[in-house]
Amino acid sequence: MLFLLLGLGFFLEQAGIIDLPQLFSNWWPFILIIIGVVQLINRKHSSASSGLIFLMIGFIFLMNQWFDLNLIAYIWPIIFIILGIVILFTRVKREKSFHTESDLDTFVLFSGAEINSQSQTFQGGSVTAIIGGAEIDLRDAVIMDGASLDLTTVLGGVEMKVPDNVQVEISGMPILGGWEDRTRVRREKEEVSVLKINCLTILGGVEIRN
Fold it and tell me: Is the pTM of this model over 0.85?
């Protein structure tokens, strides 16, 4: 969506329909607000504290833009105070999250997720890690043949464990990043289920093993 919006914005700028720099300078704080709202809504596998940080910073910049207030001088002290509070009150050990549905949908931003799937009809889904990490354990899941999983990492990483009877087929696009398939080699006549993984790694990495 980000690439689509950027491409559309540059296209309209070249066509003379909008003034992209002027539009962006007036409305860019809404990007932070939208990220914060997404984080608060997606509470299952993401951190609410990061959502509040994005919301607060977005509103501060928005008020500074619209009402010509001198709030920029206070933005960095506020950020450090918020980060300090978050660190102090979020040091409890994170418990593993159990997944039982057919589709997996995980979004991680400035945080981490540890998911153990026990789905009996795992068909795929998507995992996105932006400046964060995700550990996905599929060893207790029953993976349907032809299941498809999209992995996206931006300045982050995904570590995935799959059962021994699963053959991984990886494709995708690495941009200053990469992936590594460390699953065992299958024999020709061995019955396996195929898990198709599509990776987009931007300054990030993906590791898949048994």
Answer: no
